[in-house]
Design goal:
Helix content is 7%, strand content 52%. It is mainly beta. A 6-stranded antiparallel sheet has the order 1-7-8-9-2-3, with no helix packed on it. The protein has a 3-stranded antiparallel sheet with strand order 4-5-6. The two termini are 15 Å apart.
């Protein structure tokens, strides 16, 4: 896994666009969410990562992120938040 800086975030989030993904939440809340044909976007102005499909809409505020990392083959993206919640996005 390699660390992701905020200026690189847009390019990694765009790679999930139109893909089927699994979002795993860990920590305070545990969940596994499967999403199909995702629309993914990172808004640089307000620091919000958006993942949505026909049934689900997830927004992640990056102001509380302390670490982001991506796997070497860029199929797994992990986000660690200050509030005890960790996200793992897999293609």
């Amino acid at each position: 896994m390699k660390r992701v800086k905020e200026k690189e975030l847009q390019q990694y989030i765009q790679k999930f666009n139109s893909k089927n993904i699994i979002v795993n939440l860990g920590g305070v809340i545990n969940a596994k969410i499967q999403m199909e044909k995702v629309k993914s976007h990172y808004n640089t102005r307000n620091g919000i990562i958006s993942l949505s499909d026909l049934r689900t809409n997830i927004k992640i505020d990056t102001s509380t992120v302390y670490k982001m990392q991506v796997s070497e083959n860029e199929t797994i993206f992990e986000v660690y938040l200050d509030n005890g919640l960790d996200l793992r996005i897999e293609k």
